[in-house]
Amino acid sequence: MTDLIVHPHKQPLEDGNVLNITPESAGWQYVGFSVYRLEAGQTLRKQTGDNEVCLVLLTGQGHVKTNRASFNYIGRRMSVFEKIPPYSVYVPSNDCYEVEAVTALEIAVCEAPGRGTYDARLITPEQVGVETRGYGNLERQIHNILPEQEPADSLLVVEVFTPNGHWSSYPPHKHDQDNLPDESFLEETYYFRVEPDQGFAVQRVYTDDESLNETLIVKNGEAVLVSKGYHPVSAPPGYEVYYLNVMAGPTRTWKFHNDPAHAWIMKPPSER
C-alpha cells in the first residue's frame, strides 16, 4: 500500500478533525493541511504559532475571528460541486483563529511557515481568480484562492474542478527543484472530493528515472502527498473530481517543469 495517500478518520475527532497532515507526518518541511467538520454551534480554536494559515470554507457558513479581525456569516456553498469560489480567511503567524459553525461546516486549514508580514484578511469569492485551463478533455476550472500575486509569506492555495472523463495537472508537471527562474521547489498536498462520492480519481506520481512510480486510486475525502515528481490527475467517466491544492517551499513562486515526453501536447497542431 502506498504511503502517498492520507486517509481520513472513520469518524470526526472531538474537535471535528477528519484529516490531518503535518510536516512531521509527511516527512517534509513546509506544508501542513487539515480538514474539520463542525456541527452547527460547534467552535474550533487554534493558535497559528510560527505558521501562517489560510482557512478555506469548503462548505457551510460560519463566523471567523482572529486577534484583530472578525468576519461573520461567511460561506455560501453547500457543496464544492456548486463550483462557485469559496470564502477564505488569511491568518498570519503569531495569531489565533476561532471558527464558529452557523450551519454544518467543512473547513480546510492550510498552513506553512510565516513571518507575520501581513494582517489577517477575508478573501471573498469575488476576489478569487476564476479561469478555465486546458482544452478538450484537458479542460478544467481553476479557483485561485491565494496565488503568488496575492500577499502571503509562503502559502499558495488553489482549487481545481476536473469534469468527468477529463485530465488535470496535465501535461504532467513537477516543481521539485530549487532552480529558479526555471523551476521552484514546492511541497504540495491534494485534497480530493468526488461526485458521486462512491467514485474515485486516478493520480500518477513519478520521477524521470521512475525510482518513484506510483499510480494511485484516490477516494472521496482522501489526500495525496506530492514532495517530488510529476503528478497528473484523471477523473473517470461519470465522476466529477475536485481537489484543493496547498503548496509551499523556500520561495513563494510556482515555476513548474513539464515532462519532456508529454510537453508536445501543449503545442498547436501545426507544430507537432
UniProtKB/TrEMBL annotation:
**Membrane-spanning residues where?**
none
Q: Which ranges form a coiled coil? A: none
Could you list this entry's UniProt keywords, alphabetically sorted: Isomerase
> What terms describe the molecular function in GO for this protein?
5-deoxy-D-glucuronate isomerase activity; glucuronate isomerase activity
Highest taxon in the source lineage:
Bacteria
Please state the Enzyme Commission number of this protein. Answer: 5.3.1.30
**InterPro entries tied to this protein:** Deoxy-glucuronate_isom_IolB (IPR024203), KduI/IolB_isomerase (IPR021120), RmlC-like_jellyroll (IPR014710), RmlC_Cupin_sf (IPR011051)
One GO term under biological process is: inositol catabolic process
Q: What is the protein's name according to its record?
A: 5-deoxy-glucuronate isomerase
The top of its lineage is: Bacteria, Bacillati, Bacillota, Bacilli, Bacillales
